[in-house]
Amino acid sequence: PVETDPMIIHKDTLLYTSLTVESQHGCLSTATKSLRIKRPTAMFSMDIDSGCAPLHVTFNDQSLSDETITSRKWVFGDNEVNTGNLSQITHNYLTANTFKPYLIIENNQGCIDTSYLDTVKTGKILHPDFTVNKSVLCPHEMVQFTNTTPESHLIKYWYYYSGNQLVCEDTTNANPVWNVPPDTGFMEIELKVMYNGCYSDTIKQKVLYNKGPVADFNYSFDCGVPFDYTFINSSKGFTSFEWTIGGVVDVVNLNPSYTFTGEGDSTVQLIAYKETCSDTLVELIAIRQPNAVISSDSLLCADVPVTFDGSLSYSFANHLKDKFSWTFTHPDTVYVAESNTINHEFNEGGLMDVKLLTRFDNGCKDSTLTQVWVFQPQAKYVPDTSNGCAPLWVTFADSSKADVHPLDSWLWRFDVGIDSTYSVQKNEIKFLFSLPKVYSVKLEVTDTFGCKNSFFDTIALGNPAADFLVGDDSLCAGEPGAFYFIPNLVDSILWNFGDQFEVNQVTSPLYHTYLDSGKYWINMTSYQYGCYDQADSVLVYVQKADAFFTASDTAWNCYPKLITLNHNSGGQVIVSGEWNLGYGTNLVEYGQQKSITYPEPGLFSPSLSILTSFGCRDSFSRDIVITGPTGTFSIPFTEACRGDEVRFVLGDTNDVYHFEWDFGDGSPFVEGDTVYHTYGHVGDFYPKLILYGDPEGICKPFVVDTLTIYRVVADFEIPDTGMCSGYNIMLTNISEGNDTNRWNFNNTYYSGDVNLEVILQPGDYFADLEVKDIHGCSDTARKIFTVYPLPDITIKEDTLICQGSTITLWATGGDEILWSPSTGLSSTNSYNPDATPDTSITFSATITETTNGCRNSDALFVFVQRKPGLSINPVSTNEDEPFGDSLIIGRSLIYRLIRCRNSLHWSPDYMISCLDCASPTVQPLEMKDYILLVADTNGCFTETYPLNIPVKTSFIIALPTAFIPSGDNEENRILKVRGHGIRNLIEFRIYNRWGNEVFYTDDIEQSWDGTFNGKLQNIDAYGYVVTAEMWDGSIQTKKGTVNLLR
């Protein structure tokens, strides 16, 4: 079976997929789309890969990924790893060794790649040293260098220098032997060594002394008399010399002259002497007689190679590589050659110049000139057309011309295997070219001297077919889009990309970059030899991502500074993006405006990266420079106890005009490099060093630290009642900052208890509380107190009064009394106050012994019988018909009394369910006035409530016109008799269309559910008969039909 949704694993990054579908009638359709597989490639570069430790290496991520790289893990090879997703990072290699760093990346699609291992080598500074086996030498004497460098096993290369010249080309040799060159005076030797890219050197001055001499000479002569030479002695540091020239020794003439007998090579030697040292210079002198001679034919045909010979120019061998220089006309050509002969082909007829310049080993030159006649007939034709569409007739007009000699032969070649030859000139000739191709047509003519000439031209016939594909029709501005033409024989293709840009180029794929967003029609016309064809236009859509943003300020001379960054999306379809605000490592989700406060001076580089719906990306970064005064300070300890003296020490400062200390506890600012402060409060404090960057104090940033002050304060509370006997006395620990507690109560110790509870008899006592915290801070509190006996109290018994009545209260004991609450009391300080409470209440009496403050209390309850108060709520017993202004005849009400705890009596005794209950049911058949009599149980009050019930007379039998037994609405699933004023249902009968009774009841609460004998009846109209007795005694009957629906 054919898969409709296949899944294929591709290894290529760009591929084209075609889907061909076929209908049941054999109709075919094909769709082709390009797919780019965006695979990331992890790469990185280093600014340096070797050097001396510590070596600071900056790594730059050069990875390739079409998606955003969300994770970068730098593995430096020295057991250090960074996972901060940094595109650039500097790492310090602290020791000398060889390391293998690499990078692991992951993009937001979850694709992961690991880079190749690279190598970082670090060395250390060494102390190179060496010795020589002798210090005074003659030229060309050998000296031995011996390496004495410590840790030589670490060194790979040794570089011995004399001046800028290497002593030994083999830099792996630590102990080279040097042939000292000719020189005079002291010589300086430098030894430079390299260990893992770390160079160390030692320079020893005057380590060698070269006694000399240095032999040197030069000479001069005239090319006109090439055998006469003058030699000049230019030696240095010599005391005597010896010349040997032409076999003749001369020790007298410092600058001798000499005449050689003829051409040849002669050796000249000069020896310079000084004490036991000497230096010899030998040179080979080339003696040559300059001459130039040309040998060749004088009558020639054009376009035929001719040999020219210059060998007669030399009577003695010369060793120059390019000793011949030939110059020809038509075409103008210069040949520089070593061989004696050269071939040249003239491309025109006429009298031609040939020139030869010869060079000799002694530097002299000679030249000569000769002339030759060149004959050239002219073959020529003119076609009536040179291109077109196949097949094509072409007429050729012969316009050939003779030179000196007449033409006697014509030969046509049409590039199809058919030739035409004749000996009498024809003015025109026609030929039919059938197939599309490029034909090479040749006409060759020959004259009576045998000289030939040919003329070539092409006839090009084409049959182009234009067609192309678009690699992706959703493009990004600034990124090239690929356009593929379907291969065909064309000689040019004109592309019009719809953005006023045209290009004539036969390249596939052809890449074009749009600069702006929009939609563009692509047109392509292919040409071949005058024929052309135009392909169907294709529409592409272009989005442009522009991450440029502005900053509210790019330079500020104080901090902290709030900077607002604004990005104008300008209609871009941005699907994602992220801000790097340039401070910290957190990335922020895209928004058109972001703000950040830079808390310190520095160069900050916020950047924005965005992604459009087409996958277009852009990034932008700008620099923001924040300056201002800076400084540091230190605190020996970050934790202290309250009352301790804390020392603050000023550190480094920069660009600070003035500074002050703010201890963070509201105390005045102070000055000084080292200051002390004692905190009187506990908690976290944030002391600041305020830095003033100008005299006016406009810029005054601060440096802040955190200091925690701990306080342990021992304290506890003893309640007032706790000073009198008979009570549980709670010693409540209200200490601050404590972690451990220890009580001493009259020399009895309790550890660990936060609070201490005791019951004491009258007497004198003391209590100590010692507390500590985890920081070692401690404190102790002591309290001394006396426990007194309680005074005796007697109070009136509980009582009852009617609301509005007054009663006298009484109590005895103590020196003072306080009644509470004060509600309804004539006095709160009298032992016999009058009380007139409105509601039942409990009065408390507290007596006090004024000599010691001890108190005792008792209470009495006064029950107040209030007037009966209740709320009467009539409620219909029929939930479908709530009670309104009147009661429909036959319906009933329930009177519900709220908050009723009294004696009740209802009257009259007419259609009421009970006469002494709280919720009677009434069903009057005519308007009726009821009276409710309410009395309290204590005989204080009696209240009367009249109740009127209007009765509405209405007699109705009602049934719906349709019901749905299988419906969702419960009310509509049954058929039931409803209405007003029905006292008794006599009959309810239902008949089907054939007159069969399917339902009967005389109970008004029963209903028909649409079934007969347990089976749901069909959808149909059913007849019914209802007969009922009404409350007025009348009999009513209702007949009709009802629709059973589903």
* CATH domain class name of the largest domain: Mainly Beta
Taking the alpha carbons of the first and last residues, their distance comes to 47 Å
Query: Roughly what fraction of the amino acids lie in strands?
Result: over 45%
Which structural class best describes the helix and strand composition?
mainly beta
Any guess at the CATH architecture of the largest domain?
A: Sandwich
Residue-averaged pLDDT: 89
Tell me the number of strands: 102
Which geometry do the CA atoms define? flat
Q: Supply the number of helical segments.
A: 0
Largest sheet: 6 strands, mixed
CATH topology of the largest domain: Immunoglobulin-like
Query: Uncertain segments of ≥5 residues (pLDDT<50)?
Result: none
Whole-number tally of structural domains? 12
Please give a structural write-up.
With 1046 residues, the chain is mainly β. The chain has twelve domains: 44-123, Immunoglobulin-like (Sandwich), CATH 2.60.40; 130-210, Immunoglobulins (Immunoglobulin-like, Sandwich); 217-287, Immunoglobulins (Immunoglobulin-like), CATH 2.60.40; 299-375, Immunoglobulins (Immunoglobulin-like), CATH 2.60.40; 381-459, Immunoglobulin-like (Sandwich); 468-543, Immunoglobulins (Immunoglobulin-like, Sandwich), CATH 2.60.40.10; 549-626, Immunoglobulin-like (Sandwich), CATH 2.60.40; 630-710, Immunoglobulins (Immunoglobulin-like); and more. Helices cover 0% and strands 53% of the residues. The protein is built from no helices and 102 strands. The strands form 31 sheets. Strands 44, 46, 47, 49, 50 and 51 form a six-stranded mixed sheet that branches. A hairpin with a 6-residue loop joins strand 55 (574-580) and strand 56. The protein is flat, with a radius of gyration of 62 Å. The mean pLDDT is 89.
